[in-house]
Amino acid sequence: MSKVVDKVNQDNERGARKALLEELFNDFNTSKAEVYRTNFMRGIFFALGSLIGGSVAIVIIVWVLNLLVDLPGGIGNFIQSILDAMQSQQG
């Protein structure tokens, strides 16, 4: 019987917490349009950051591979053309 009472108490507490969170959310966000706009902008900036971070990581990997390994024919030439293009844009 005590397990049932504990379960009911936990469910009541969980429901109270959920209601409090919903009330706080509604207090801070007066309109759904504002919430949608904010989440849209967060998504745009997350995607942009991921794109830039991935590009930087790939450039660093290619640069390190170029320093450490003399890559064979086609791969080496491809990586060298990428490095040449990056250097021409910097300088």
Structure description:
The protein has 91 residues and is mainly α. It is 90% helix and 0% strand.
Runs in which pLDDT lies below 50 for 5 or more consecutive residues are none
What string gives the helices and strands in order?
A: HHH
Tell me the major beta sheet: none
- The chain-level structural class is mainly alpha
Number of helices, counting only DSSP H or I runs of 4 residues or more: 3
Radius of gyration: 27 Å
Average pLDDT over all residues: 82
Cα distance spanning the termini: 78 Å
Strand content: under 5%
Helix-residue proportion = over 70%
Number of strands: 0
Brief account:
The chain is mainly alpha-helical and 91 residues long. It contains three helices and no strands.
List keywords for this structure.
elongated; 3 helices; 91 residues
Question: Which helices and strands, and how do they pair?
Answer:
Elements: H1 2-28, H2 32-68, H3 73-90
